[in-house]
Amino acid sequence: MKQTKKDFIEWQEEQLNAGKRKTGGRIKPEYRPATKAIKRKKGQPTDRVTLKDTGFFHASLFLVVGQNDFGVVSTDRKGPWLVDKYGESIFGLGGVFKIGYIDDLQPVFIDKIRESLHL
User: Fold this and answer.
1) Quick one: pLDDT band at residue 103, thresholds 50, 70, 90?
2) Residues in contact with 7: Cβ distance below 8 Å, sequence separation at least 6, in sequence order
3) Domain around 101
4) Is the CB of residue 104 less than 8 Å from the CB of residue 111?
5) Axis crossing angle, helix 95-116 with helix 5-17, rounded to the nearest 10
6) How many angstroms separate the CA atoms of 116 and 96, rounded?
7) How much is the average pLDDT of 6-23?
8) Which spans in 1-119 are helix H?
9) Which residues partner with 70 through β-bridges?
10) Number of domain units in the chain
């Protein structure tokens, strides 16, 4: 996974832009009317919660890979607040986003196996 961290985060951003949680459900609660008005002025989507206003939150995402696990972390100061409001399931991949990442990961994984087996 270390070699495909960037791919994972790109899929994470795509999932957030689609307004989806890793569970496949929509990110809720919806934006308030005042927030929707601001987003409309900025030309941003209002039909779903993307957690993207300035882009700092999305840009702050990175993947931490441990020996037996991994997780998405944000360095944005709003990160803990967003997790409190929207829940941990805003991080991680599900559905087509997970499948897309697996498609990116598979060739790297196969190459590593071949390399370790000297094939």
Assistant:
1) very high
2) 101, 104, 105
3) 2-116
4) no
5) 170
6) 30
7) 96
8) 5-17, 33-42, 56-59, 79-86, 95-116
9) 65
10) 1
